[in-house]
Amino acid sequence: MKKVLVINANPKKNSFCGALSGYYVQAAIDKHEVKQIHLSDMHFETSLDAGYETETALEPDLVRFQELITWSEHIVIITPVWWGSVPAKFKGLVDRVFLPNFAFRYVKGKAMPDKLLVGRSAEIIVTLDTPPLWYKYIQGNIIYKQLKIAILDFAGIKNRKTTYLGPIIGSTVQKRKEWLDKVSALAKQI
Prior knowledge:
Elements lengths: L2 E6 L7 H13 L4 E6 L21 H12 L2 E7 L7 H10 L6 E2 L8 E2 L5 E7 L4 H6 L4 H14 L2 E8 L7 H15 L3
Parallel strand pairs: 1-2, 1-3, 3-6, 6-7
Antiparallel strand pairs: 4-5
Keywords: Oxidoreductase
Protein name: NAD(P)H-dependent oxidoreductase
Enzyme class: oxidoreductase
């Protein structure tokens, strides 16, 4: 049994990412302890205006998010691609929460900081309005590089799998059902 955190990173209240996260939770809950968070329900200032030079107090939703990250053993990020990357509110969440002495620690004399979230795994599920192959090989797969390499790896979280679903726009009810079933199957593989 693992402690699984499912993050619906779409800031819209009603989204296909929300449906996907619900299916993931339902499929995983029989074998694992699962907690879910919806970005649309969170309230916080997205900008880290002072960078790391000044400590900015975390709003209650950000404190709770840090607690969930600390609690988790496996993190599932379900996010849409907006302008090639994650939605701005989700990037703001990362900026505000993955801070020094929580996600990493600078060490004098070392080029790379210590990773403080080691021991956790992750899974990224991406929805797109473009064909996944076009996004990955023509547009450069920015979301994968940003989430997997620049954020998760940097903090010590090992991404196990990235799944691309799309194009969502114009998809049929049947195709969306196939994607929901696929996400359920992924949850059963944890």
